[in-house]
Fold this sequence. Notes:
- By secondary structure, the protein is an alpha/beta fold.
- It has three domains: 4-173, 3-Layer(aba) Sandwich (Alpha-D-Glucose-1,6-Bisphosphate, Chain A, domain 3); 177-407, Alpha-D-Glucose-1,6-Bisphosphate, Chain A, domain 3 (3-Layer(aba) Sandwich), CATH 3.40.120.10; 410-496, Alpha-D-phosphohexomutase, C-terminal domain (TATA-Binding Protein), CATH 3.30.310.50.
- The protein has helices spanning 37-53, 72-85, 98-107, 140-155, 175-191, 214-220, 245-254, 256-261, 290-299, 314-321, 340-352, 379-394, 398-404, 430-442, 473-496, and strands spanning 4-5, 22-25, 61-66, 89-95, 113-117, 126-133, 136-137, 159-160, 169-171, 200-204, 224-228, 264-268, 275-281, 284-288, 305-309, 332-336, 359-361, 367-369, 410-416, 448-453, 459-465.
- A hairpin with a 5-residue loop joins β20 and β21 (459-465).
- α1 (37-53) crosses α4, α5 packs across α6 (214-220) and α9 runs parallel beside α10.
- The chain is globular and about 65 Å long.
Amino acid sequence: MTDLELLPQQALQRNLFGTDGIRGEATLEPGNGLINPQTFAGLGYAFVEELKENGHTGDIRVVVGRDPRRHSDIFAKATMCGVIAAGGYVIDADILPTPGVQRIAQQERDVDGAIIITASHNPPKDLGGKYTDKAFKLSEERGLDMSNRLWQHADNGLVIPNTLDLSRVEKRLDARETYISEIVEKIQSIFGLNPLEGKLFVVDCANGAAMNISPEVFEQLGAEVIRFGHDPKGDINDNCGSEHLGGLKAFLARNPKIAGRMIGAIAHDGDADRGNGVGYDDGEFLEITGNNILEAMAEYPKQPGVAGTIYINTATERRIRAMKQEDGTPVGFKYCKNGDTQVTRTLLDEQALGRLWTRGAERTAHSMFTDDWLTSGDGTFSMAWYACWAVTVKKATFGEIARAAPMWPTEEITIPTKGLPIPEDIGEHPEVLAAIEKELQELGGDGRVVLRPSGTEPKMRGMMEVPIGATSRDKMVQSIQRLGERAMTVAAELVAA
């Protein structure tokens, strides 16, 4: 491959970053801003500059890891070339879950940041990158700054050599074993030596980065493990993994003896920063989401408070608020914007006020233990923790736990915005609030509605929750559709004004 030249594109000044890094359909064709080696080399270069701009001095050292998607090795090499061209040094962690790469940046004092080549839960055709300052994911503002740097370098005709200076690359051959050991030792310090001894779990690794991580962790904790989504030649997230539980459920339906024996099945996305699962109870498969995990996190041991995104179910929020600490004080709960970085920001804001809030989650099962693990999600750690909690504290299966904690029915819609700018707080506009109140009254008076622009697509997202049995799903769909259309009308009126 030739050198990676960033060619000028005068009119194309746009933010490449979404709520969690950059991702999209991968190509090896050249072109600035595409998901290709050229762009990733430029972002590696910009990342080193970004770290220097934000207080990192001396030799900049960046750990680079990846999931096992097609071309991820090529994108990782291009990224390393960009880091080195900017004067940095590279630690090559090869294939490793996102949180495993972050742990290296967190644990080692001379490592400044991390880059993970992954498209997370996206389809196999996609690739992407996640960027962290130490182990902290970059804010949206810093992502925009990196994008701007890339375009500035393109205007200046930056050329990045497509050959690695091996004197600036350290191969981290023990990264996998170290990460496994850290998780096992931490879980054992909480739950004992073999907390899962003799218990059966199915582990779905989405044919992704956790294939040689999560099963080993569960086995070292004493579990009997059946592997699913564990094909090194299989497509990542293809009818497997945390966002595609249908494949896992179908496997369990074909194997009723396994379903009947297991404590539960766990599932990761491609880079394993998420973890959710499936339980089986009374002939029915029940999902374990970030809602269930957050309830457990709030309960054991009782926390002063936890944070969750706006998509955490109202039933979960109310059960958490009903919990009492040892002194009788209620456990607190705070909603925040969507995105695991928003959960972390909310927890850090509470800590700045002197409140020891250290745990939080997204519904999609990024679960954060910020006090003694990571400031963002770790699917292997959180699901090993949840499995041990289920076995040793609740003494119940995933299915039994899910059955005992039902969620409010939820309906969601997306509406293409067709270029119309949607204010972030569209759901708080007086006219929209009045419409929400009217719809909820017609559905029984209780419920919750979220209306917001997507952070990654030209769409507006709407969600409605109502108490169990309050109304039919058809009526909920009609109601949230009307509210979405009303919000779009208000947004158009704001533009016209």
